[in-house]
Backbone:
C-alpha cells in the first residue's frame, strides 16, 4: 500500500519501506524497522532503528524521499544512548508569521486635468554697457627728424596716433603737425524692450457617479 507525505510525494510500498535507510539532518544513518498504519496517511508512523539499536517512533509524513532511495528526516539524533543516558533528539519548532500587504484597487473615480497657456506682456529695463571713442586733435607743430618719425603709442588708456605732413621751407624737413589722442570711455544706457512671457494654468475637473466638480470646489450635476 502506498502513502503520500505532507509534500505530496508518493512513498514506496510497505515492503520497500521496511529496512530502507534513513538519514537525519546531521547525516547520522538509521533504518526503518517496522510500520504502524493509522486511520489516514497523516497518522501513519514508522519505527526507525538507530545505529545503537534504539527504536524511535517517527510520523511517516516527516520522511522525505531522495533520488537515491534514502529517506531524510528534518531533525537530528544528537547523542547515541550510552549507559544510563538515553538517546537525545532535536526537532525543529515551526511558527507561522502574519504578513500583511496592500494593493491598489480601481474605485471608478478619476480626475481630469486641463492645461492652458496664457500670455502676458512684461517690460524689461536693464542697463546695457557699450564703448564710445572720443577723438581729440592736439596741435603740436614740432619739426622732427625724418630718420625717427614718431610711432603710435598708449599713454594710459589713450591711444596717440601721430599725424605727419611735409611743409615747404628753404630746405625740406619733416614736422610733427599734431597728435590725435583717442580715449575709450564707458557709459550706461537703458534700452527698454517688451517681451512675451508665457505661463500655464491648470484646471482640475473631478467626476464621480455623474457629479462634476470644477477647480473652485463647486459641484454640478448633469441635467
Residues:
Amino acid at each position: 500500500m502506498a502513502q503520500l507525505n505532507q509534500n505530496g510525494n508518493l512513498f514506496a510500498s510497505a515492503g520497500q519501506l521496511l529496512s530502507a535507510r534513513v538519514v537525519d539532518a546531521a547525516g547520522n544513518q538509521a533504518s526503518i524497522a517496522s510500520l504502524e498504519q493509522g486511520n489516514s496517511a497523516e497518522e501513519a508512523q514508522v519505527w526507525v532503528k538507530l545505529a545503537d539499536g534504539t527504536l524511535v517512533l517517527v510520523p511517516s509524513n516527516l520522511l522525505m524521499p531522495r533520488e537515491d532511495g534514502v529517506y531524510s528526516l528534518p531533525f537530528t539524533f544528537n547523542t547515541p544512548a550510552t549507559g544510563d543516558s538515553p538517546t537525545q533528539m532535536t526537532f525543529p519548532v515551526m511558527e507561522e508569521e502574519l504578513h500583511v500587504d496592500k494593493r491598489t484597487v480601481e474605485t471608478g473615480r478619476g480626475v481630469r486635468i486641463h492645461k492652458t497657456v496664457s500670455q502676458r506682456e512684461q517690460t524689461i529695463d536693464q542697463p546695457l554697457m557699450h564703448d564710445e571713442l572720443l577723438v581729440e586733435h592736439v596741435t603740436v607743430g614740432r619739426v622732427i627728424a625724418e630718420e625717427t618719425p614718431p610711432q603710435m603709442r598708449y599713454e594710459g588708456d589713450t591711444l596717440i596716433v601721430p599725424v605727419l605732413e611735409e611743409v615747404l621751407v628753404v630746405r625740406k624737413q619733416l614736422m610733427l603737425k599734431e597728435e590725435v589722442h583717442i580715449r575709450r570711455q564707458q557709459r550706461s544706457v537703458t534700452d527698454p524692450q517688451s517681451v512675451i512671457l508665457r505661463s500655464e494654468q491648470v484646471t482640475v475637473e473631478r467626476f464621480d457617479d455623474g457629479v462634476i466638480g470644477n477647480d473652485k470646489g463647486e459641484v454640478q450635476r448633469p441635467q
Q: What stands out?
A: Confidence is low (pLDDT under 50) at residues 1-12.
